[in-house]
Specification:
mainly alpha
Length: 282
């Protein structure tokens, strides 16, 4: 009579590299994740180069003329921090793309998707800024450029938020990460949707809708924007704790993507505050 392990015929027992079924926790990550190279000095040097280049771009661009002196300083400070954050996103995206070019296979971890979406969003915003600056700024054009900038900035934000609905499908094997991903999509679509509707109403709004516009301003500025980073951070924190509890192994690009999400949401709130909450300053 042959001797065999009591677990040999148990349903869901994982053997070799094959995926587990019923016998393992459904939160277990698939064994075929995309694997970036280890974090090295070359990545840090690349981040520094990209960050300095972005800082030079933002410094040359300056701030909108309609901002007061105090708001100009705050705007530039936010832009410099944004350069460091999205410099890291560009490096992370480059690592992912180079890995794919070299034939690296496997599923992206949630943070990888976060980096890709945020990098595309940042590049579109930089292109928008370049277009606005290309037209020049005069006292007469300030209001038109500001409206144009806000409309397209809101549209880019709305598209990037909507992209997280697609990301949620891609991370379906990482169920704890579906909650923050869907949350980012819902909150982002809501906030940017309200911003866009409000900006459109500024173009030519009947007097009867003045109260409605004021209500949207209040809801967005006083309620949604301040708590947006908190909502995102809490849902991401829960997913991180679940990862720790189940011993999930994550790479540095995934971790970078999570931090970029938190910091970019904070920067978006700060930018909105400079443009809308400090109008009487300085």
């Amino acid at each position: 009579m042959s001797m065999s392990s009591p677990d040999a015929d148990r349903p869901g027992r994982e053997t070799g590299d094959g995926p587990a079924t019923e016998g393992r926790c459904s939160f277990a990550p698939p064994p075929t994740y995309f694997r970036p190279p280890p974090l090295g000095i070359i990545h840090l040097l690349a981040w520094m180069v990209v960050t300095v280049a972005l800082m030079e771009f933002f410094a040359a661009a300056g701030g909108p003329r309609h901002l007061s002196a105090v708001r100009q300083v705050l705007y530039q400070a936010i832009q410099f921090v944004r350069a460091a954050v999205f410099g890291a996103a560009v490096v992370g995206t480059t690592v992912i793309l180079l890995g794919k070019v070299r034939g690296e296979t496997g599923r992206f971890q949630p943070g990888h998707w976060f980096i890709l979406v945020e990098t595309v969003k940042a590049v579109l915003n930089w292109m928008l800024l370049a277009v606005v600056l290309a037209f020049g700024q005069t006292e007469r054009s300030d209001e038109v450029l500001s409206t144009f900038h806000h409309l397209f900035w809101g549209a880019i934000g709305l598209l990037s938020a909507g992209a997280y609905f697609l990301v949620a499908r891609q991370v379906r094997n990482d169920r704890p990460w579906r909650v923050p991903t869907i949350t980012m999509a819902i909150v982002g679509v809501t906030v940017y949707g309200l911003l866009l509707s409000n900006e459109f109403s500024r173009i030519d709004v009947p007097a009867a809708f003045g109260a409605l516009r004021s209500l949207v301003d209040t809801v967005v500025s006083a309620a949604l924007w301040p708590i947006w980073p908190l909502i995102v951070s809490v849902t991401l924190g829960v997913a991180l704790l679940i990862d720790v509890a189940r011993g999930a192994r994550r790479d540095w690009v995934h971790s970078l993507g999570v931090w970029i999400i938190v910091l970019s949401s904070v920067l978006d709130v700060a930018s909105w505050g400079v443009f809308n909450l400090l109008r009487g300053t300085g």
